[in-house]
Amino acid sequence: MENYINSYIRPRIQGDGGEIEYLSREGDEVTVVFRGECSKCLILDRCIKWIEQRALEDTGEAIKINGIRKRPYFQDR
Amino acid sequence: MAQIKVERRSMRVQEWIDLRFGWLKRHIYSEKYEIDCFTVREARQTSEMQFEFYDEKPRPLKKGDLYFTPDGTAFIEAELDVPPSLRGRDYCFLLKTAAEMIVKVNGKYAGGIDPNRERFDLSSIVPDTHIKIEITGYNRSKPDDERNPESLSVRGCRQIFEGGYLAVVDTGVQSLVYDVELLTDAASCGLFSEDFSALVYRHLDKAMSMIDYDNVLSEDVRSAAEYLELNVFSDKLYRGSGSVELVAHSHLDIAYYWRRIHSVQKNMRTVLIQLRLMDKYPEFRYSHTQAYTYETLEKYYPEVFEELARRIEEGRFEPAGGMYVEPDCNIPSAESLIRQCLYGQTYFREKFGITVNNAWLPDVFGNSWILPQILKKSGMDYFVSNKMSTWNDTNRFPHNNFIWRGIDGTEIYACVPPTHFISWNMPSQVQGNWDAFQDKDTGTSTMQMFGYGDGGSGVTEEMLEYMRRFSRLSVMPETKHVSGSDFLERNFTPEKPLAVWDDELYLEMHRGTFTTKAKLKDYNRKAEYLFREAELVSLLRSEKGEEYPADEIREAYKKLMINQFHDILPGSHITPVYRDAIADYEEITALLTRIIGTGDRYFNSLNFPREEVTFIPDESGSFIRKGVKGRFTKADLPALSCGDIAYENADEWIKITPDSVETPFYKALLAQDGSFLSLFDKELEREWVKGEFNTLKLYDDRPGNYDAWDILPDYKEHPVPVETAEPLRFMCSDGECAEFCALLKAGESYWCRIIRFFRRSRGIEVENIVDWKEKHKLAKAAFGCKVLSRELVCDTSAGYIRRPTHTNTSWQQARFEVCTHNWCDISETSGGIAIINENKYGAGAQGSCVTLSLLRAPERPDPTSDTGLHNFCYMIYPHAGDFISAKINRKALEYNVPLMKNDIDYCGPDFAPLCLQSMKLSEDGTMAVYRLSEQDGMRGRLDLGRKMKVLNMLEDEIGETDCVEYSPFEIITLGAEI
User: Fold this and answer.
1) CB B71 to CB A74 under 8 A?
2) CATH number of the domain to which A53 belongs
3) Is the pLDDT of residue B139 over 90?
4) Do the interacting molecules here have an ipTM over 0.90?
């Protein structure tokens, strides 16, 4: 899953000025860090759902993404 | 019972107007027919017009469905019969979206939709009763313009489809909406008189109360409009002053929060929107820049390109800006800037028969002093750039319409409009521009650009509707809608008493862009010199019958031009843009290396004899420099000649004690971190060190939102300790060089410094190998010099610029970080120190301390910026006399242009003492072209020994001579028939 997120999901997220970093996995829960534009996105939950759907379709694994936003100090919280 | 604090409040008249205005806007569409047969196929763009699809087949797309994916392109289609009730009437296509869409209907490019506009007229373009709609939509998390608040709320990668419609616009309501928007802006902006605002609000309130919002009737809307006409638009009591000329333009970043592959569609959408507006508004004229964007339109959308060409012929669509793209104007070399002009103008000439007479660079981050000459000799008499007036953080730039005198004395007309290049044509913006205009007493008008931009988009119908109303609003300045060249040609004439600005156009902001994304800067510098070598070698080979690879070189050069765009080379972009740029640079490097080829002997491509020690890759050498094994030697090769090199053996040329190093030139005391405690010059009998010298400095670097762009003036107040992990130790030596190494810990990063002393050179090289793991840090090397000077002299690549090192005034204080090319120097009459670099552009100086910026680590727009391995060198070069007598420019060229292995011969003139910037085949293939620059501020004559053509930078013949009289910093282009 780490490889999948890094090699498949990450370039797509980066394409919109975002950033995703794989952090850990416990069972079906995958924890990732969102930076860049993702960190302040108002509708990030829709994107997380899309990642879960893609992962299921591409890897056959049903995962649940736990997204942690890391905003730079200068962005609104 | 809970106690609730009740506050009584009443609504102000403005709030009542706003409330009713919201109700009125609900009635813009008198009829809407939902298109319920949309399908969508999600994809991701992989290269220009190439897509990877997620779905094999389209899926139905219904209102409320999610569509678009991260970095996604959506292909949306619908096929339907136009409802009978709409046939023969005017209707539009309506779709509200945060995405950017190009809409094709029945095979014809019908219009564009984006966050700034939700509809376009359809029946006038495609009057058919059966229509097939094909949409290419690209969604980005950053809509075109953050100043458009409505677009901010809907950004994000996954969008909810809000439905698509065929709709009939109630033109009465729509017109009243424009009236109210215009008047509300004028009344609320605070730029016009209070009495005028009171008048507008009073009558707007009355007009809005004429409509029953439960049952909006056309006659009520008409009455309200007539009331406003009679009481506000016809009122001439309040009179404005001034003259503002309105130029329609859309700023299009080739890459920024998107890749250049996406700018193909962004440009297409922008152009298409403007063309459709031209259909509807006969008075509309639009100015569009960057030959590259025309090229992509021609390649991928030929039918739209043809339409555009027709509008150019009519004089309504104006190619503006003669450059290939809008490049950064600090970092590219003189030759690169010349090529921007050459390739831009050549395209415009070939396709439209036009030589564009202006440089249109609204968003660039400051402008090198070498530009006026380059522009003028490339057919451009006018220069336009907005940043200095709107972004300077310290001083207000004193002029808007002025004459810019360049480094060589060339004068060019310059327009720095008082306000931003993105505006939406509101009365407040027009008045704001006039208020800010500083050259009112010259009798010139001020320029206001209007149109959404950054990612294109351009003018909207609203903007043109407002413009039609401006002349009816007497309180406003006089306005005129013109093309860019129209404005420039009429307002900049010899009779106008324009001030002269005789200096670079330094931007007091974005100083970090000289350093951010160090690898791009490295590749760029190397590519610039590789092009020089490849063209020179190819030309010499072609004289012996080999084919000159003109097309290959031109295409590669254009790729370099694209990557010099002002959000690519400066480093202000997202991660994929960086990857694209690196891939391009690698491709360019591979191609040029192949073209240059190799040989048994060494060729000195510089047009002066080599005098310095140079590194020669050699498996038997004792040194590893930048990962390559080799050795140093002094290559005594004459100008433009081929020969062999020899190695000398010398014993005991260096004395090393635990705390000192003695070479033929110096006795140096070195600290454990590789800094110098003392550098005593044995030959000149003087000390060079005063304070920290060759000290690695790390600073907290947190400029805020403009992270990649800016360095704050107080960065020095936030130092971060640098520790010595392994103290300096002797590594190895041979007969030419001795090497020392220290390992430092700077923040979280290990930083290896290799210091090299030479037997036969005054230069002291410092190689840096860094595993850079920082965030928000700035690394600099500091050189406290025992030199009394109040000037830092910086290379511009075609001459030098002197900048004060004191902070007497706010103008000097603001230049705490400046752009330099191959070298900078601080000298007194009897001697000085040059810092020669191979890929750095940011320097600072205060008093006698010079700093060279080495690395940054911003997080926005690219969270991965600059992290990873870096390996770069610089050279400390103490010298006698000043930088000219010490030939520092030549030494820096030697440092940047390594000897190449090549068995070629040259038997022409060496053009000394001028610098041979370039030697190439002319674009038409008929001449050898020689570009020469005077670098030292000298005047003189150069005997050519034969008749040669004198050319401008577009390679047009302007004369013939056998003797060139050159003046300080002049760039001369000569041609010789083959």
Assistant:
1) no
2) 3.30.300.130
3) no
4) yes
